[in-house]
Write a structure and sequence with these properties.
Blueprint (H helix, E strand, L loop, with lengths): L1 E8 L1 H10 L3 E3 L4 H4 L4 E4 L2 E5 L4 H16 L4 E10 L5 H12 L11 H8 L2 E7 L2 E10 L4 E9 L8 H15 L4 E3 L7 H7 L15
Parallel strand pairs: 8-9
Antiparallel strand pairs: 1-5, 2-4, 3-4, 5-6, 6-7, 7-8
């Protein structure tokens, strides 16, 4: 499974459109009439407004415009996302050190390839050309539950939608192998990313330290 992204990406805009989309529907409205109706032109198609009156529509457009004007767009060129893609240990070690700002040690010097082939359901690689810029490891219980581990994005490639595409590719792949649930835990500062952008929902969980 490979997914190739060659476009201008704005993660914040994608998040806004996710919530606004239910208010619109595609319709065959001639482009020359679009300005006279409650419509938006998006991806070369006309979106018609399904809710409220004209005043509500105008207010919504003003809000959207103020939001979009503050967004930053990033060129994402030839980024390829691959389920169980090939990688070298040295690539993942370097990416891990960069992503988690960790120095040399057992965590980063491990034989990633042997460990993943032996213990993981799979992983996703993200490459910009030949460079590994993103990686996520996926473990599982052998049946219906899978867990996301070690989400890494190269520091120079962040804010470009790489992380959300890594998660999206992971969701597709784990669903295809028959998993019903995908789990993740994360630092509090990442809650907006996982809940608002990736679609996870809050749930109760626990953690027990086994070694000091």
């Amino acid at each position: 499974m490979a997914r190739r992204e060659c476009s201008r990406v704005c993660p914040e805009l994608a998040c806004v459109l996710h919530f606004v989309e239910p208010l619109f529907g595609y319709a065959d409205v001639p482009l020359h009439r679009a300005r006279d109706t409650q419509c938006l032109l998006w991806n070369s198609r006309v979106l018609t407004y399904n809710g409220g009156n004209t005043g509500d529509f105008v207010d919504l457009i003003h809000v959207l415009k103020s939001l979009v004007d503050g967004f930053q767009y990033h060129d994402v060129v030839a980024v390829t996302y691959q389920w169980r893609g090939e990688f070298a240990n040295s690539e993942v070690i370097a990416l891990h050190r960069d992503a988690f700002e960790s120095g040399p040690g057992t965590a980063t010097e491990a034989d990633w390839k042997s460990q993943l082939y032996r213990n993981s359901l799979g992983w996703v690689t993200a490459r910009d050309g030949n460079q590994l810029i993103g990686f996520v490891n996926v473990i599982w219980d052998g049946r219906s539950h899978a867990w996301i581990q070690d989400v890494m994005v190269d520091s120079a490639s962040r804010k470009r939608g790489i992380g959300s595409q890594l998660i999206a590719t992971t969701c597709d792949a784990t669903r295809d192998v028959g998993c019903e649930w995908l789990h993740v835990d994360f630092d509090e500062g990442l809650s907006k990313f996982y809940f608002d952008v990736c679609g996870f929902v809050p749930t109760s969980a626990g953690l027990l330290r086994l070694r000091d």
